Amino acid sequence: MKKPKKSKKRSAPARKAKKKRLSPAPLLSPGAALIGPAPDIGAGDPLGDPLGEAAAALRAGRPEEAFSLCRRVLAAEPDNAEALNLAGVAAFQTGDGAEARSLLETALAFRPDFADALNNLGNVLKAQHALGEAEDAYRRALAARPGYLDAEYNLGIALEAQGRFTDAEESYRRCLENDPNFAPAHFNLGNVLKALGRLPEAVSAYRRALEADPGQSETLNNLGTALMELSKPADAIHAYRQAIGLDSGFADAHYNLGIALQEQGEFDAAIGCYDKTLRCDPAHAGAQINIGYALKELGRLAEAVEAYRRAIGMAPDYDKVHANLGDVYLQQGKAGAAVDLCDAFLDDHPGNISVLAFKAIALQELGRTDDARALYDFDRLLRPVSLSAPEGFTDMAEFNIQSCNVLVPSILYQRWQNERFGAA
């Protein structure tokens, strides 16, 4: 499943806290989708020119034909870098990444400053998850041809994939200096700004992308997720509905619309959205889990049980959906069934903290206080440890002062994120 922000964790073994833990939050951009230009295949007159015909075949989606034309040229001119470049692109498009890399590297051996071949080699390496090598290829392409838009854009993608969002931002902004209406760069700029927590700027970037290309459903979807994080649900709902209007089969837009409606308390409408999500993507466990939650909130507990059981069938190792089902059992007065559910999960996942915590609550409901206390017996489970001051600090007192000022806030923030949305 696509890493939705799912159920919230329980902060304390109390019934009130359970409800909060189960509330879902919006899916992060499925659009970390990185969109952009096609590989550089060069120009050429297709009439009477085998390489021009090969380029035309590639543009028309006929890579096998293009590869055959390139081979004819290479039989007579094995050092023809243009033919090797086009053959490399053709091999890549047929799924032969190893052959593509070999052909492009051969082209560069004959012509080291061939910017198109360097850019295409970067694309092959990126597809092979060799991101550092891909970055190097794109930078070499830019050194050979300063201002090369495709290579700059692809460099941004490689940097973003490495989690270097600030560097990626710089690449996308350089793209936009060359072409202010380049919608894919605005879109990806929005993604990295969102990752950096600069949500108003991300919204602006997505809106600029839509001004340049209004037909991008993924841009609208990502705009919606940013607006939700800015606590603008009405605007987010409008964006999701626009995305669905452009692509009725866009599962993540249906899912995110469901979450937004659910956050507004419109549970029946949310269930309809989750049903559409599952029609588009039958394996979308997040939608099935949220159907269970919405049914529980509507008081339709028997239906919620069935929904959660289906979700467990889709995501059997996901601990929180077991806890969610157990929560419904508690509301039905079936604490024994909740304990049995926990034990069955713990047989395959011993030591799982979320389910152990929920089991303690279920045991309390059954009146088995001693058994519950054994699961959170701090005297038995915790022991004091003496720590030495880390390097750079004179003693632990100095370290504690500094960590309170610097380290603790970030740690608490991460803990809050994990408790609110579930650990990634």
Give a quick rundown of the structure.
With 424 residues, this protein is mainly α. It has helices at residues 15-21, 50-59, 63-76, 81-93, 97-110, 115-127, 131-144, 149-161, 165-178, 183-195, 199-212, 217-229, 233-246, 251-263, 267-280, 285-297, 301-314, 319-331, 335-348, 353-365, 369-375, 378-381, 396-405, 407-421. Helix 4 (81-93) packs antiparallel against helix 5 and helix 4 (81-93) packs parallel to helix 6.
Can you characterise this structure?
The chain is mostly helical and 424 residues long. The chain has a domain at 1-23 and 221-383: Serine Threonine Protein Phosphatase 5, Tetratricopeptide repeat (Alpha Horseshoe). It is 70% helix and 0% strand. It contains 24 helices and no strands. It has helices at residues 15-21, 50-59, 63-76, 81-93, 97-110, 115-127, 131-144, 149-161, 165-178, 183-195, 199-212, 217-229, 233-246, 251-263, 267-280, 285-297, 301-314, 319-331, 335-348, 353-365, 369-375, 378-381, 396-405, 407-421. The longest helix has 15 residues, at 407-421. The model is unreliable at 1-38, 43-47 and 405-424 (pLDDT under 50).
Range of helix content: 55-70%
Number of strands: 0
Name of the CATH first level of the domain at 1-23 and 221-383: Mainly Alpha
Query: If you consult CATH, what is the topology of the domain at 1-23 and 221-383?
Result: Serine Threonine Protein Phosphatase 5, Tetratricopeptide repeat
The unreliable regions are 1-38, 43-47, 405-424
In percent terms, what proportion of residues is strand? under 5%
Strand count, sense and barrel status of the largest sheet are: none
CATH architecture of the domain at 1-23 and 221-383: Alpha Horseshoe
